[in-house]
């Protein structure tokens, strides 16, 4: 079973243009394949988002929670989780 549930996929489909200049997926299946391909991460809270970026070597030390939430790669999910698409 994929880690990308319906909420993740629908949010990415709806908001993908915040990260990309044009759509990379048109259907839920394409979105799931794309998220798998780029190894997007589902984080349960902002602490996990920070840990993800720290582990990937990104310098986010001076970023506030609000700034991190607004990062193009971070998609806030309606249920409070975050989808991080590091493409």
List keywords for this structure.
87 residues; alpha+beta; 10% strand; globular
Describe the fold and architecture.
By secondary structure, the chain is an alpha+beta fold. It has one domain (6-84). The protein has helices at residues 6-15, 28-37, 46-56, 65-69; strands at residues 41-43, 74-76, 82-84. The mean pLDDT is 94.
- Numbering strands along the chain, what is their spatial order in the largest sheet? 1-3-2
Rg, rounded, reads 12 Å
For the biggest sheet, the summary is:
3 strands, antiparallel
Q: Which structural class best describes the helix and strand composition?
A: alpha+beta
Quaternary = single chain
- The separation of the N and C termini measures 22 Å
Nearest-integer average pLDDT: 94
Order of helix and strand elements from N to C terminus: HHEHHEE
What count of helical segments does DSSP give? 4
Number-wise, the strands total 3
How much helix is in the residues?
40-55%
Low-confidence stretches: none
Shape: globular
In terms of DSSP E residues, the strand content is 5-15%
User: In total, how many domains does the architecture comprise?
Assistant: 1
Give the helix/strand layout.
Blueprint: H1 6-15, H2 28-37, E1 41-43, H3 46-56, H4 65-69, E2 74-76, E3 82-84
Antiparallel strand pairs: 1-3, 2-3
Organism: Eubacterium ramulus ATCC 29099
Protein name: Glyoxalase
